[in-house]
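Async update (no meeting this week)

Hi team, since we skipped the sync, here's where things stand on the single-chain job. The sequence we agreed to prioritize is pasted below, unchanged from the tracker. I ran it this morning and attached the output directly underneath so nobody has to dig for it. Comments welcome in thread, and please keep replies under the output.
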Amino acid sequence: MISRLFEPIDIGPVSLDNRVVMTAMHLNYTPTGDVTDRFIDFYRARARGGAGFIIIGGADINDQASGMDFMLSIKDDRNIPGLTRFVQAIHAEGAKCAVQLYMAGAYSFCGMKGLPVMAPSEYTSSFSRARTTAMTLEDIERVQQDFTSATRRAKQAGFDAVEVLASAGYLVCQFLSPQTNRREDEYGGTLENRMRFGLETIRRVRAEAGPEMAVVVRVAGNDFVPNSHTNKESRRFAAAAAEAGADCINVTGGWHESRVPQITMDLPQAGYVYLAGGIKESVDVPVVGCNRINDPFIAEEVLKEGVADLVGVARGLIADPEFVKKAREGRTDELRRCVACNQRCFDHVFQLRPVGCVVNPRAGREAETEYQPAGTPKKILVAGGGPAGCELATVAAERGHKVVLCDKEACIGGQIPWSAAATHKPDFRYITEYYAAMLRKTGVDVRLGVEVTPELVDREKPDVVVVATGAAPFKPPIQEVDAANVYQAWDVLKGNAQTGKDVVVVGGGSVGLETAIFLATKGTISPEQLYFLTLHDAESPDVLRNLMVNGVKKVTVIEMARKMAQDVGPSTRWVLLKELKLRGIQLITEATMKEISEHQVVYTDAAGNDHTLTADSVVLAMGARPENSLAKALENSGVDVRVIGDAAKCGRIGHAVEAGFTLACEL
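Output:
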């Protein structure tokens, strides 16, 4: 039973209705830095959905803060009216809100505008690649005054709190870390000196905020950067921050250049709340635990265990703005849970595109995607129970249409049931669980193990047939691919192919690389084995690591393009490439498959030279093609036929969900 999540709590002078904090994130909804209707609509939906405390930003406190005009701005008094309009909209829905004060330091791109990139010391940032300018005492005073002025504007706009950003490798972190702070004055050297800039800033913000506003400090519980801070040093800074006036410590993990995943599905759910637990032992103010909390039951467990006093939920609220409301009402089966794919949130941030969501086609488009009951209810026959077909069926049924959904398989989900488990995406099961619940709720007539044929269409006599039959793996026109030792990647991931010891995977896109990892893990120890052996000191760390990453197969991937994983987003690509390297998978680019035989593969390199690889098995991961034979069979039947998802054009899950939603609103 979920109860702790809904208990009220005070952060300094601010009383919250529940313990869910929507943490700050970039959305790219503010192209000029000013609050927009889109920005307000997005957050208003989350406030209406029950989020207790919403933190927006980061918000630029000066021209050098980010160097990018599209970041939310609180650097000028002209920003106050828009911020006031935002606060009023959030308060009208019963939520409290804060703005995060943003100063990137070495992470800023202000150098592109001819402005100096300020940092504690002179160095080249491994994240922004910018060469920094060491801050003078005058610079320090000016930046601290900018924090103070931003706090004044937040107070004038009516915010309940401000958040000082001292995490993720931004300016305060750069002062804290011996990696980036090489100063020899009172702001460098000992930890006490390195904390000075951050603590002075917090004191000044506290003084400006006054007794009615809360001050939150966002910290990195561990930098995950070699020779930088661990949780030990973070505890000391958090304790000092609380003494300096912080009413709440909001704990995340890592810097942007950390080589440890922070937010991808590789991180277990609530994987970094232990960092909040460490800091909670050192402070007497409420602590927020963060990172990969997208399930209210997991959030409840974090609170009940006393690891944190509040939970940070960001992408979970992008995926479902009613995260809190549905959990409070016991409708958790209706939750659209975040699956940590990053494809339309963090990847869009890096691509300078507005944030969306793979599982929620309305995210960031709340106003324009409102839909009404259908004027003329129709009978709709949906062929295919993948994400496109399920999204269309549920939304169309909500609008009042009579919907019959058929799938020839024994379960819904399309490719998800077999691909998610094999490629270590356990959260993807949430997609099928959500659709199963919503198909039931909306009264869709679901028929599994039933293939839609022209004869079935003739019997059912629907007004519309929606073909959402997905895709099939592409098979190149080469005679040798029919050999006994050649398999499609899909068959390997389904467990329908028995590969040998030496495997060559043809195709270096996401499917090929994930299949290579799937094969390379054969013969490695399981997480349960690792836990047992570690707990009992049965093997040395070196032996355990070897058992974790080295399996029984030698796997090679060949790719025609110059780079691997070109279809993988920037926020997850580096993690995928890192794992390929850790597992010893050989990657060969600019290679064209020339010949396949029983025991080898011949490929041609960019220079035209032929090379031979030993290969007991060859796995083809050369893309997919639409499976729309039903649509072609119905071309001359006079039936209104619509084709969506991979059946229309092969793409990612987000494209399928969006296509299903769009058509459901049009019908």
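Quick observations from my side:
The mean pLDDT is 95.
The radius of gyration is 27 Å.
Reply here if anything looks off.
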